[in-house]
Amino acid sequence: RGDLTFGMPFGGASFGELTGLTTLDLFRSGVCECPEWMLELTGLQMLSLGGNLELGKTLGGARLGRLNRLTALDLSHMELCECPEWLGQLMELQKLDLSNNELGRNNELGRTLGLASLGGLTRLTALDLSNNGLCECPEWVG
User: Which residues span the membrane (predicted)?
Assistant: First the structure.
């Protein structure tokens, strides 16, 4: 389990060498972009990136779809206006937290952008979309 002390500077190639790491919690850690070493953590099963507002601005360009063993992902509290396309590549994902974002903000109907890519995640058992200003549920949910 990865446990980074709050406020501790982190980075560099040494983290990429932790290939056996299964859980990484970076909630409200102040991370601004997904570091390259994170893509080397192919054994990750649980990843929390929530609460990092600056990261939310660049998350769409991240290549986190390479972390194909993820079963739980927290992207809450990031002011996301749309779902990153790479989410649809995480076929093992069982729990996804997208709460407290702005997924319904960018259009007048409150329809979320990018959620259609999640329809193929057949192992998904928990999806939190609360507090996003959504007016309707994606068709594939029901």
Answer: none
- The edge-to-edge listing of strands for the beta sheet with 72-74 is 2-3, 23-25, 46-48, 72-74, 95-97, 126-128
C-beta of residue 103 within 8 angstroms of C-beta of residue 76: no
Angstrom distance (rounded) from CA 128 to CA 124: 11
Using the predicted structure, report yes or no on whether residue 109 has a pLDDT greater than 60.
Answer: no
Nearest to 95 by CA among 77, 75, 72, 76: 72
Q: Which residue has the tokens 């890519």?
A: 117
- For residue 84, the domain's CATH number is 3.80.10.10
Contact 57/82 with Cβ under 8 angstroms?
no
2-3 and 95-97 beta bridge pairing:
unpaired
The rounded radius of gyration (Å) of the Cα atoms in the chain is 15
Confidence of residue 49 (pLDDT cuts 50, 70, 90): very high
What pTM does this model have?
0.86
List, in order, residues 6 or more apart from 98 with CB less than 8 Å away: 75, 76, 80, 83, 127, 128, 129, 132
For residue 46, the enclosing domain spans 2-6+14-141
